[in-house]
Design goal:
With 176 residues, this protein is an alpha+beta fold. The chain is built from 5 helices and 7 strands, in the order βαααβββαβαββ. It has helices at residues 17-37, 50-57, 59-62, 107-121, 136-144, and strands at 7-11, 67-73, 76-83, 90-98, 126-132, 148-149, 159-165. A 7-stranded mixed β-sheet has the order 1-2-3-4-5-7-6, with helices on both faces. A hairpin with a 2-residue loop joins strand 2 (67-73) and strand 3. Helix 1 (17-37) packs antiparallel against helix 2. The chain is globular, with a radius of gyration of 17 Å. The chain starts with 6 loop residues before the first strand and ends in an 11-residue tail after the last strand. Residues 168-173 have low confidence and may be disordered.
Length: 176
């Protein structure tokens, strides 16, 4: 019999010291891995490019207008995802990260589901994201969750841009 973990998905409250360190560690791991995959590895979070180091050092300021979702295993943060503030009927999901030892156990899909639910609650029609083309497992996950590739809105090469509708448009029925 295997020990099945109970993971909860919560909206992080800004200025909550109980999960600040956990979120910072997740963001640092995400950015360090991304830099290494881009062939620009750095030794630690202090050597990340400034915009990424700022997220690690002060997530509250970096994501002040956004919603940060956490996956918790007990009190330990084991995954994160950022949902940007809505604009023009859209929002974007960013910084999806799951600790490596829990990958394949539904953490990432649970975070995306929570993000889609949040987007629907705030009236967003479309959720979009960008993912590095070499992250084939992530692309496959997004496709399973209904995202499709779309024209790029980001000038950086090697990014795959994807989107998915959140709410189903109501059919207009003629009056009888």
């Amino acid at each position: 019999m295997t020990d099945r973990r109970e993971i909860s998905f919560v909206r992080r409250r800004a200025q909550d010291p109980s999960d600040q360190d956990g979120l910072a560690a997740l963001l640092a791991a995400y950015h360090l891995q991304t830099q290494a995959e881009k062939g620009e590895a750095v030794a630690d979070a202090d050597r990340l490019p400034e915009r990424y180091r700022a997220e690690v050092l002060d997530p509250d300021a970096a994501f002040a207008d956004d919603v940060v979702l956490l996956a918790l295993d007990g009190d330990a943060a084991v995954g994160c995802l950022v949902v940007t503030a809505p604009a023009d009927g859209r929002c974007e999901v960013k910084r999806l990260w799951t600790v490596p030892e829990l990958r394949g156990q539904g953490v990432a899909s649970g975070l995306v589901a929570a993000a889609l639910s949040h987007a629907a609650d705030v009236g967003v029609d479309t959720v979009r994201l960008s993912v590095w083309q070499w992250r084939t497992d992530a692309i496959a996950l997004y496709e399973r969750l209904g995202f499709t590739a779309t024209e790029s809105w980001d000038g950086r090469g090697r990014l795959v841009c994807m989107e998915r509708a959140v709410r189903v448009a109501r059919a207009v029925h003629p009056r009888h």
